[in-house]
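User: I need a structural model of Guanylate kinase from Zongyangia hominis for a docking pre-check later this week. Nothing fancy, just the predicted structure tokens so I can convert them on my end. Input:
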Amino acid sequence: MNKRGLLIVLSGPSGVGKGTVLRSYLEKNPGARLSISATTRQPRTGEVSGVHYYFLTEKEFDKKIEQNEMLEYATYSGHQYGTPREPVEQMLEDGLDVILEIEVQGAMQIKESCPDAIFIFIMPPNMQELTRRLVDRKTEDEETIRRRLERSHSEIAMAKEYDYVVINDTIDNALEKLDAIVCAQKCSMNHMKQFVEEVLEDA
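Assistant: Understood. Predicted structure tokens for Guanylate kinase:
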């Protein structure tokens, strides 16, 4: 049987509740892990390298790109962010499902290099609700919220490039759909092909 884990790529606009859905999913599914991203920005108070991010210098990050050690990478606010290939591959080989919570730009890179991955876009029920969630966080000023909402339109327009769309109207509903998608994918012929071949060989 195919014991390799699933690579799950999760995206969605800021404020849609990706982090909350993910935390609930990881608590419920001990066989899943969240990939740790690498970045060139400085650690914030309380952040630990290898736990929250892998903190790299610009030179170290560029070297990993040159040596094809990044599954995906992009630049945001003057800093580089990316997904190191080796830890993801190791977890998948160990039979763990690996979740990449990344921006649309990075997800499209993964789509080219990892065709077996499943791509899930988390959507708000409507733009009014997304605005309310961003405002209720009380972590950003009006201009930052405006920019995030502006960007969310282009991100949501890319949802058609994903395999599945999950509407996060409530955490329970979103979690139920996420569970169902992963379960269905594990039963797909794409994932079970090796098992079918092994059964035929034993016949």
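Before docking, keep this in mind: The CA atoms of residues 111 and 117 lie 7 Å apart.
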